[in-house]
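pinging the channel bc i need a second pair of eyes. not urgent but kinda urgent?? the chain im working w is below, pasted from the shared doc
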Amino acid sequence: MEAFRDREEAARELSVALSPWRGAHPLVLAIPRGAVPMAEILARELEGDFDVVLVRKIGAPGDPEFAVGAVDESGSLSLSPEARLIGIGPEEAEAERQRELLVIRERRRLWGKGRPSVDPSGRTVIIVDDGMATGATMASALRFLREKKPKILVAAVPVASREALDRIRPLADRTVSLLTPERFLSVSQFYESFPQVGDEEVRRILEKKHH
């Protein structure tokens, strides 16, 4: 079931759903890498700013795309109830936390070139991803941003599973999902074109906003 031609179309449709926040000068924060091109479009359409929120998912053994937890930029680890059931114990979790934190720090260095991230305190903050299967990564991003004291915290995705929405609703002030299909296997099934977004593309998009 393909619902969107590509991420650009998904972002434009999402911008309509998010139009109540146009004029509030929102800060649109992308969960890398897939959502970065989307955040650029959303920020332009909503007359706001954009940046990245660096969270990394912890994948299930043998299925790294299926998130059973996530690490945020502060180093905080959150695991879903499924993590222990599939054999991720405290030692494995800590090893994953350390590994992903290194990736986060390297990405901040590579993409940000030492520039500080945009301060979300007191602002309308919209966290965007290109879709949510489990909601683990979005949940981690929401918890991390909540501590930064935004005025309003919005979670926005083109498509999400029901389980993911149930998981993140208590963590956001508003939740926007264009589609909540009954059968949800992967985010990519809802896109006609869903190429990988590379580090170089992310760096180029983030670089543009500083010029």
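so The beta strands are 27-30, 49-52, 56-60, 63-71, 77-79, 124-128, 152-159, 174-179. and The chain has a mean pLDDT of 89. — does that match what u expected or am i reading it wrong
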